[in-house]
Amino acid sequence: MEQSELLAYVTNAFASLGVEYFITGGLAATVHGEPRFTNGIDLVARLRRDHVAGLLNAFPMPEFCISESAVEQPIRDRFQFNII
Hints:
With about 80 residues, this protein is α+β, with helices and mostly antiparallel strands. The chain has four helices and two strands; from the N terminus they run αβαβαα. It has helices at about 5-15, 25-30, 50-60, 70-75; strands at about 20-25, 40-45. The protein has a two-stranded antiparallel sheet. The longest helix has 15 residues, at about 5-15.
């Protein structure tokens, strides 16, 4: 999956879950005119505990690497986690 396709996938998933988010990092810098060589997509999202089930359904294994235990505490602590 190309980066643009993945970004569309993620933003559509967040929209369907009602998750507020913004894009940051290298991708945002590139969009605003300062190219950076990155394949990652950095997002800041306002996730709640009630988003977890939908998040896991939106990013199923084995296409993605995410687990309930890997997201619950970061959501509670308002900290970062990865969806690979």
